[in-house]
Amino acid sequence: MSAGRRVSAFGADPAGTFRMPGLPARRTPITDIPQLAAAARARGQTDRVILVDAPDPPIIRTPGRTANQWLAGGDFVPLPVHGRFRKRRACLGSRAITALSHHRGADDSGLGRVGQEDSQQTEELSLSIETGRQGRSFPLRQPPIHVPDEVLDDLRQRLALTRWSDDTGNADGSYGVPRAYLHELVDYWRTEFDWRQAEAEINEYEHYRVEIDGVPVHFMRIPGVGPDPTPLILTHGWPWTFWHWSKVVDPLADPGAHGGDPAEAFDVIVPSFPGFGFSTPVPDRPDLNFWKVADIWHTLMTEVLGYEKYAAAGCDVGALVTGQLGHKYADELYGIHIGSGQRLDMFNGERAWDITGSRPIPEGLPADAHARILELEKRFAVHLAAHMLAPSTLAHSLSDSPAGMLSWILERWTAWSENHGDIESVFTKDELLTHATIYWVTNSIGSSMRIYANHNRYPWTPSHDRQPAIEAPAGITFVAHENPPGVTTDKRVEHFLQTDRAAWYNHINLTAHEYGGHFIPWEIPDEWVADLRRTFRDRR
Questions:
Q1: pTM of the model
Q2: 171 near 179, Cβ under 8 Å?
Q3: 384 and 415 in contact (C-beta within 8 Å)?
Q4: How far apart are CA 40 and CA 62, in angstroms?
Q5: Is the pLDDT higher at 331 or at 126?
Q6: Apex CA 28: angle with CA 23 and CA 33, to 5°?
Q7: Where are the extended beta strands (E) located within 383-522?
Q8: Closest to 225 in 3D by CA, of 249, 200, 208
Q9: Cβ neighbourhood burial of 254 (10 Å; 0-12, 13-18, 19+)
């Protein structure tokens, strides 16, 4: 098999549940699988079928194209793992599978405590991938996300034992998160929220874990469906999780199935930021910050995954990681797309925690501009100061109390999203608690907050003195919820071009939207996808 040749794989679990594109799932003896596959071949769904002799479950290799759109182009998709069938299980990119083997036992690298299963129940598919461009081979395993039952039991017990504070006079939230809504959400988390359902949805995608420079890196991958998908890495911020990208990954990977052009497909890589979620624990790297993570991402994309060139996008702190990639590694990027246009040195300085820059509010401002300044400062000042000055002090309490942890990040989700006073218009209870559970079960709230202190403790320094500092072609999406004081959305781009931040970027695509908040790919996914596609159109 030549490098770059793509084939398809289908199979059955030990009980004989068989699934193939165009066929309903069915119970059938494993010995009948070749006949079923041959019938599919006769209907023109595939060119030929080979049954690979393997212990349960057997694998059927099906080289050639299929009529099913999500397999257009013949990506290799080994479906049967752990007795589940997932339509998005696939090997990396336009790479060829050179070996298939089954392994009993929990993954040696694991996903911290999370991701390890009882050795009698775990069967993982190990793929030896040969890159289509460089001819390198490396092994990857696909451990599913799995939170042990005892971790979930402990969570419910802690929620039941929550000691509530006196919150008199805070029905309007003027002192912070109101107790009444937090109590409602905590009760729902304890009695109704189904993590296993969320976990199953997350596990419809591929998940991998590697270690780079002593840092565990979990990433989700969605294989591109198109003639030549562009590698794309998406970076989240705080208090995000990798799952905040879940609304955009399918349209980016398979534009043809979402009203787009298959020629604009991306091979989508979505890591958990080191110290966040499943990229934990990080006891040997307490120094991580945005520009150090950019180096890790570049190693992931070029040395681990073997891409010669790739695209990058990000929001929040992820926009700084992406900007640093565009600064230090511009020659190896097609470009970048971000959700804000900040300076890479924004956290440098003795008082970086002071969002006001120690500047008084100018006198004589219109009342609405004055109010907007105060609103924006209140929106971001609390977490910046706390995370940069004393993240561990806060972490000791938030790591012990799930209700306290939820309260701290709920305030950010509420204040930063455009929800008009109703957070559940942006995040349902189940969605809020999916993200919160990822933080809790990985005990990552402390390491996620420390990132802010490290931005300042280990200041950004330039890798070159060329201008613009971020040389990679850059697209930026702006949203009205974050408009500066006195600036309307129709003037947002013009205003940005007049700031000192604009000179940092080789900007090629600036777009402002009249709606949407800080969590752009979650709140306005269609607009984000369209903006990103426009940035990378004709850039290859």
A1: 0.77
A2: no
A3: no
A4: 10
A5: 331
A6: 65
A7: 470-479, 505-513
A8: 249
A9: buried
For residue 173, count other CB atoms closer than 10 A to its CB. Answer: 14
Strands, E, within 65-195: which ranges?
A: 80-81, 84-85, 96-104, 110-113, 123-130, 137-141
Q: Which amino acid is at 2?
A: S
Q: Give the position of tokens 């929040």.
A: 316
Q: For residue 528, give the nearest of 253, 339, 341 by alpha carbon.
A: 339
> Is the separation of the CB atoms in 233 and 220 below 8 Å?
no
What are 311's strand-pairing partners?
232, 335
Q: Which residue has the tokens 């971020």?
A: 470
Residue 455's contacts (CB-CB under 8 Å, 6 or more residues apart) are 289, 290, 317, 320, 347, 352, 388
**Mean of the per-residue pLDDT values for the chain?**
80
Q: Classify the C-alpha dihedral 247-252-255-257 as positive or negative.
A: negative
Q: Using CB atoms within 10 Å of the CB of residue 373, give its burial: 0 to 12 exposed, 13 to 18 middle, 19+ buried.
A: middle
484-497 tens-digit pLDDT: 998 999 999 999 99
Asked whether 461 and 315 are in contact (CB, 8 A), the reply is no
CA–CA separation, 93 and 307 (whole Å): 9
174, 274, 294, 321, 452 from 288: Cα distances, Å: 34, 8, 10, 12, 9
Averaged pLDDT, 36-60 = 41
Q: Give the chain's count of helices (H) and strands (E).
A: 15, 19
Structure tokens at 501: 């931040």
Residue from 418, 424, 425, 342 nearest 379 by CA: 418
Cα dist from 157 to 89, 162, 186, 339, 367, whole Å: 35, 9, 11, 38, 49
- d(Cα 36, Cα 355) in Å, to the nearest integer? 64
User: 268 has which bridge partners?
Assistant: 222, 232
Backbone angles phi, psi at 532, to 5 degrees: -65, -45
Burial of 204 (0-12, 13-18, 19+ CB in 10 A): middle
Do the beta carbons of residue 446 and residue 392 sit within 8 Å?
yes
Return the H-helix or E-strand segment holding 187: helix 179-191
State the amino acid at position 24 in one-letter form.
P
Encode pLDDT of 71-98 as tens digits. Answer: 223 333 333 322 222 233 233 332 222 2
Q: Which residues pair with 263 in a beta bridge?
A: none
Q: How crowded is residue 501: how many other Cβ atoms within 10 Å of its Cβ?
A: 16
C-alpha span between 5 and 269 (Å, rounded): 21
Q: How far apart are CA 213 and CA 389, in angstroms?
A: 27
Angle 137-139-140 from CA coordinates, rounded to 5°: 130
Determine the 3-state secondary structure of 221 from DSSP.
strand
235 with 273: CB under 8 angstroms?
A: yes
Burial class (CB in 10 A: 0-12, 13-18, 19+), 375: exposed
